[in-house]
Amino acid sequence: MIMSLVLFENEFLNIVAISFTALIVNELIMVALEITTWHVYMIAAEVVTLFLYMVSMAFLPEYFDLSFVITTRFAWKVALIVAISSFPLYLIKFARSRLRPATYTKLA
């Protein structure tokens, strides 16, 4: 949230849009990182969740400034916040899998 305040120059609607979008995308990434065996329903759930979130932006103009949401400025700010928040967790998961591999990987 502090990163959002720094990036948005005190524009409240933009802060809400970027923070909540980054939260949704980050949670979808965290779910995807925890899944070891993908199923078509899991992929569909991730895609449908993201689609419904994007559609809901159109119906909630008091929370999302659509003219800002469709800009590349919005996209790179979301990407930056998501990268900063999820990359360390990915590194920890990768390091843990190398240092303490699961039993099924040791058997192969």
Write up this protein.
By secondary structure, this protein is an all-alpha fold. Helix content is 80%, strand content 0%. It is flat. The model has no long low-confidence stretch (mean pLDDT 86).
Provide the descriptors you would attach to this structure in a database record.
108 residues; 6 helices; flat
Concise description?
The protein is mainly alpha-helical and 108 residues long. The chain has six helices and no strands.
What share of the residues lie within helices? over 70%
Q: What characteristic shape results from the CA principal axes?
A: flat
Structural class: mainly alpha
Q: Whole-number average pLDDT?
A: 86
Question: How do the SSEs run, as a string of H and E?
Answer: HHHHHH
Oligomer: single chain
Query: Distance between termini?
Result: 43 Å
Kindly state the number of beta strands.
Answer: 0
Largest sheet, in brief, is:
none
Gyration radius from CA atoms, angstroms: 17 Å
Strand content: under 5%
Q: What is the number of helices?
A: 6
Unreliable sequence segments: none
Task: Give the arrangement of secondary structure elements.
Layout: H1 2-7, H2 12-34, H3 40-59, H4 66-69, H5 72-99, H6 103-107
Helix pairs in contact: 2-3, 2-5
